[in-house]
Amino acid sequence: MELQELQKIDFGNLSLHEIKDITSEVIGKRTKNLRDELEDLLLQKELLEKNIEKKSSELQEAKYTIFNEIESIIDKNDALTLSKLHQAKLQSIDLFDLLGETVESAIITTLEKSKDSEAKNTIEEIIKELTFETIKEGTLNTIRVRKILSTILHSSIDIAEASSNFSEEILEATLKGMRGGLMQSIDRFKKRLAYMPLEAKHILIEDYDTIMQDLNHTDVLFSQVVQNIANESTNGTRKTLLEINQRMHYDLEELVHMSKETALVMREKFSAFAKTAVKKADTALHSQSAKEAKRMGIQAWGVAKTALNNAIKSAKNKIDSKE
To answer: Closest Cα partner for 233 from 132, 299, 285, 159?
Structure first.
C-alpha cells in the first residue's frame, strides 16, 4: 500500500484493530526484503556461533593432548618439572567451562594425598590459583566474577558436605582462596592499566562507570555470593559459611583497600578518556535511534495518559447517571 492509497483512508474513524491491520500490511510489504536479509544473517550467525563453539572445543582438546604428550616424556619422579608443566597448563587452557569439575578434583586429590595439617593451606592455595587464572581469562566485571566465585563455592560445598570431619576447614580455605584470587586479579588489572594500549583503553572506557562501581563494591559482591549460596545450602553449611564470612571481615578490608586503590589509578589514568566518552554519549543521544526511542517513550506516556483520562471519564459518567 503506497502513500497515495494511505492518504485516502480516514484513520480518524478506524478502530485500533483496523489501524493495526493496515499498518501490519504496509510494514509486511515494505520491509519484506529487509526481513529476508535479516533472516539470512541470523542463520549465518547461528552457523558461525556453532562453528566457533566447535573450534573452541577442538582447540581445548588439542591443548590437552599437547600437555599430555609432554607429560608422558617427563620423569614421573621429577615432581618439580611436573609442577611447572601443570602450572603452564592452568595458564594455557580455558578454565571457565570446566571450573566446577576442576575445583572438585583438586580438593578431592588434596584430601587424599595431603596430611590434615597441610590440606587446608593447600586447598586455599589451589582455590586462589584457580580463581585468579579463571578471572584473568576474560573481563573484570561483576556478572562474570560472581559466576566464577559461585561456581567455585558450589563445588567446594559438595566436597565439604561429603567430608564432615573436615568440612569447616574446606569451606574456610575456599573462601580465603577466593578472596586471595580476586585480590590478585584486581592487582594485576591495576598494573596492566599503566601499559594498556590506546585501543584497549577505548574499549575499557565504554564500560568505565560499571567497572568503577564494581571496584568500589568488591567486598559487597564477595559477601553477597557467600550469602546467596549459604541460603541455598543445608542449615549446617549455611551456619558455617556465614560464621567464616563474619570472621573474614578484616580480610575483606584488605580487598576493599586494593579495589579502591585500583579505582583511583583508573580514574587518574582515564579521566581524559572518560570526558571523551561523555561527549560521544552526548552525540549518540542525538542519533536517529535515540530520537526514535525518545519519541516512542513520549508516545507511550500519551497512550497511558489517554487510557487514564478515559477511565476517569467513564467512572464520572457512571456516577452522574446514578445521580
So the answer is: 159
| CA–CA dist 180, 228 (Å, integer) | 20
Tell me what pLDDT residue 117 has.
73
Say which residues have a Cβ less than 8 Å from residue 216's Cβ, sequence separation at least 6: 259, 260, 263
Instruction: Return the closest-CA partner of residue 223 out of 161, 169, 150.
Output: 150
User: 164: which DSSP letter?
Assistant: G
pLDDT digits (tens, 9 = 90+) for 106-121: 888 888 887 777 888 8
Confidence of residue 286 (pLDDT cuts 50, 70, 90): low
Examine the pLDDT at 238 and tell me if it is beyond 60. Answer: yes
Q: Given CA atoms 87, 88, 89, 92 in this order, what sign does their dihedral have? A: positive
236/229 Cα distance (integer angstroms): 13
The C-alpha angle with vertex 195 and arms to 194 and 199, in degrees rounded to 5, equals: 110
pLDDT of residue 215: 77
Flag whether the pTM goes above 0.70. Answer: no
Smallest CA-to-CA distance from 255 within 157, 98, 149, 96 is with 149
Distances in whole angstroms, Cα of residue 292 to Cα of each of 30, 71, 256, 278, 286: 19, 60, 42, 21, 10
